[in-house]
Specification:
This protein is an alpha/beta fold. The chain has a single domain, classed as Alpha/Beta hydrolase fold, catalytic domain (Rossmann fold, 3-Layer(aba) Sandwich), CATH 3.40.50.1820. It is built from 11 helices and 9 strands. The chain has a 6-stranded parallel beta sheet with strand order 2-1-3-4-8-9, with helices on both faces. Strands 5-6-7 form a 3-stranded antiparallel beta sheet. Strand 1, helix 1 and strand 2 form a beta-alpha-beta unit. It is globular, with a radius of gyration of 16 Å.
């Protein structure tokens, strides 16, 4: 049995991992899929203090409060920023980092800097909730933006997407324990349509070749949950 901590991306919540979590749980694995502060069912609690550090601290707190060790932490999209910070803050709790079509940041880099073209789009229509600058809601940041085109799945997803505090995208990641973090094994699950925007040689070199790709939309945990769960099981068996 492996322990998975599944970290969602921008505009999402723990709900987006429901299909993958159920598949992994059916195989006997322990699965946590938290909604980050201000996201998912916590969207009513948005406040100006929610930034990248707040999300990192939240997942680190989960690792400690649940006394998790050797956890496989999975980050989708913006979640790649979060899991990199989590592994940096709590390397003794993390056994593997999995980047699910995710940001793969350098020290001192924000998501806005890391993926400027797509992230800068989210600033269109920026507005405020509870004195907090937020992005990604309303249109055009709905299911189609994340590569979900099945009408039923798109409707289900659209009903759950929420605004994202802009500070999460603009705050720079500051690594404190980079050597220990980089020593933790990593793997990458990449969507074919985004491969051209990624440094594939860097991913392959740093992961020892553990890079899988699939031709689907960015929200692959929803469009291809069985494939994602199968790859995560392969990683757990390493």
């Amino acid at each position: 049995m492996a322990t998975f901590v599944l970290v969602h991306g921008g505009g999402h919540g723990g709900w987006c991992y429901r299909p993958v979590a159920r598949l992994l749980q059916a195989k006997g694995h322990l699965v946590y899929a938290p909604s980050l502060p201000g996201m998912g069912e916590h969207t009513h609690m948005i406040h100006p203090g929610i930034d990248l550090d707040a999300h990192i601290d939240d997942v680190v707190g989960l690792l400690f409060s649940e006394d998790l060790a050797d956890a496989i932490i999975v980050g989708h999209s913006y979640g790649g920023m979060v899991i990199t910070g989590v592994a940096d803050r709590a390397p003794d709790r993390v056994g593997h980092r999995v980047y699910l079509d995710a940001a793969y940041p350098q020290d001192g880099e924000s998501l806005h800097e890391h993926a400027f073209a797509s992230i800068d789009q989210t600033r269109q229509g920026m507005y405020q909730i509870n004195g907090t600058d937020v992005v990604m809601k309303p249109e055009p940041f709905y299911a189609g933006f994340f590569g979900i085109h099945d009408p039923e799945l798109a409707d289900w997803t659209n009903a759950r997407l929420t605004p994202q505090p802009w500070a999460c995208f603009s705050q720079k990641l500051v690594l404190r324990n980079e050597t220990a973090m980089r020593a933790i094994p990593e793997s990458h699950l990449v969507c074919s349509e985004t491969m051209a925007t990624r440094d594939m040689e860097r991913l392959k070199t740093n992961s020892g070749g553990r890079v899988w790709d699939i031709d689907t939309g960015h929200d692959l945990m929803l469009t291809e949950p069985q494939w994602v769960a199968d790859r995560l099981e392969e990683i757990a068996a390493l």
